[in-house]
């Protein structure tokens, strides 16, 4: 049995941020090479602290879904997963045994050599008849002074594609460092130029900064006044959203596993938690704000406050993904980074099989079954606030300065809207969903939303209109 975990950044503010990781997870599930594909996030749930607990097998490969190495892949993710590793990840990855699971943490997908094929695929989409007679390629990176590895990857891809012989010229240019993208008219001689942004997704840079710096007016732009005019520039979509990235992820995962044979076993604690939960569900149960009712060999899920409403008055959802996407926003359309906040939208019902139920409940309340079961069996260890505060790095180091009163002030606001009980603040929880109390959910450790709000409080910026931080 083998589990694949994809790690994304996610966002407290914007529901689209996690979308790319969801899509790749779906593509990889369809391929069926892993018994499960699980997503974990820095700013959403399941969080990096929880995600390994939600995994079914004892053989786990973790892939950071980032385009380049940097602060998140080298500092935040290894720290939060508890890998006991900081700094550059070696090419063979980092292997650890954590809680009885063999965990392999790899480099981010963006540094894999197979990304050159993805760049070529993007170039071909923009210019199908590209050829070595008259076509130049520009691999366009962000460039940054903070992490030299991010530029190295762009140079390496440019080098591989130069050697491939598909292009007359190949250039590596950058937005934020030399050689800059604006210098392309001097650098490129060929009459046709394909530009492939080495970026994770469409965004401000790919939609605005790059076209502006290059003078592009659309996907195809004619230039009559460059030193080597006439020239036509073909602007490709960013590499990070290409479906072939799923293949790169699989290659990376296979390489990380190396010669390690047949995979692991089913994780016993995980299996016990879900068996106990399914036994409850078969009789009909509630978890958080959701009501689960067995119905003619299937299960119906709906908001508990919609109990008794006629099915015809509710929107019927029939897939796990449909339910997930519908419940990622509250009724006002706002993103729900913390699923146990009491804002599950009403007005829907989902009809699912027993095989689908665990993933549906996982999406509705990530890690809640596993953590509630651990608490029920006295195996959930709480992490007190000072420990969480000390662990923070980067812009969050300042939360260590928060007084207990400030933390309480923020928690009164944020956590009072949440179903969870703060074990990390010394609160006690005598029951759980496993003892028949659907809203009794343990919070073992302050979530990243609370940490971010405490940071705002310490900075004196909390509650300011339009203020929000998402790094
Ligand atoms: Fe909920 Fe507060 Fe725990 Fe975050 S820290 S999950 S808001 S109880």
Automatic annotation (TrEMBL):
Residue ranges of domain DR2241 4Fe-4S iron-sulfur cluster binding in the record: 378-456
Occurrences of domain DR2241 stabilising (ranges): 270-375
Keywords: Lyase, Metal-binding
A family per Pfam: DR2241
InterPro entries in the record: CbiX-like (IPR002762), DR2241_Fer4 (IPR041346), DR2241_middle (IPR041181), Sirohydro_Cobaltochel/CbiX (IPR050963)
This protein's name: CbiX/SirB N-terminal domain-containing protein
Lineage of origin: Bacteria, Thermotogati, Deinococcota, Deinococci, Deinococcales
């Amino acid at each position: 049995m083998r589990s694949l975990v994809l790690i994304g950044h996610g966002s407290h503010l914007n529901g689209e941020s996690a979308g790319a990781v969801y899509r790749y997870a779906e593509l990889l599930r369809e391929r069926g090479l892993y018994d499960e594909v699980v997503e974990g996030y820095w700013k959403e749930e399941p969080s990096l602290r929880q995600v390994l607990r939600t995994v079914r097998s004892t053989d786990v490969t973790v892939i950071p879904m980032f385009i380049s190495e940097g602060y998140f892949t080298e500092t935040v993710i290894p720290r939060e997963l508890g890998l006991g590793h900081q700094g550059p990840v070696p090419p063979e990855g980092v292997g650890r045994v954590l809680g009885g699971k063999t965990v392999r943490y790899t480099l981010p997908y963006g540094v894999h050599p197979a990304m050159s094929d993805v760049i070529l695929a993007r170039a071909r989409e923009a210019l199908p008849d590209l050829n070595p007679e008259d076509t130049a390629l520009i691999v366009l990176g962000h460039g940054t002074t903070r992490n030299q590895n991010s530029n190295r990857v762009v140079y390496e891809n440019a080098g591989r594609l130069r050697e491939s012989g598909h292009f007359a010229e190949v250039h590596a240019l950058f937005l934020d460092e030399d050689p800059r993208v604006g210098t392309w008219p001097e650098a490129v001689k060929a009459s046709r130029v394909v530009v492939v942004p080495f970026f994770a997704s469409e965004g401000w840079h790919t939609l605005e900064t790059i076209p502006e710096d290059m003078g592009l007016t659309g996907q195809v732009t004619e230039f009559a006044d460059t030193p080597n005019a006439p020239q036509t520039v073909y602007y490709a979509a960013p590499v990070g959203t290409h479906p072939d990235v799923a293949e790169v992820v699989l290659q990376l995962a296979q390489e990380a596993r190396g010669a390690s044979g047949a995979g692991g076993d089913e994780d016993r604690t995980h299996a016990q938690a879900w068996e106990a939960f399914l036994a409850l569900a078969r009789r009909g149960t509630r978890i958080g704000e959701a009501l689960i009712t067995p119905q003619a060999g299937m299960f119906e899920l709906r908001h508990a406050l919609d109990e008794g409403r006629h099915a015809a008055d509710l929107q019927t959802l029939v897939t796990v993904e449909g339910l997930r996407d519908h419940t990622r926003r509250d009724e006002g359309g706002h993103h729900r980074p913390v699923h146990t906040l009491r804002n599950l939208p009403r007005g829907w019902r989902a009809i699912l099989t027993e095989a689908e139920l665990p993933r549906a409940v996982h999406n509705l309340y990530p890690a809640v079954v596993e953590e509630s079961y651990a608490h029920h069996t006295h195996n959930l260890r709480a992490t007190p606030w000072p420990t969480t505060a000390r662990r923070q790095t980067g812009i969050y180091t300042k939360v260590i300065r928060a007084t207990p009163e400030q933390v309480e002030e923020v928690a009164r606001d944020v956590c009072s809207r949440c179903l969870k009980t703060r074990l990390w603040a010394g609160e006690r929880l005598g029951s759980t969903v496993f003892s028949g109390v659907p809203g009794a959910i343990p919070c073992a450790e302050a979530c990243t939303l609370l940490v971010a709000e405490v940071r705002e409080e310490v900075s004196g910026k909390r509650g300011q209109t339009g203020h929000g931080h998402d790094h």
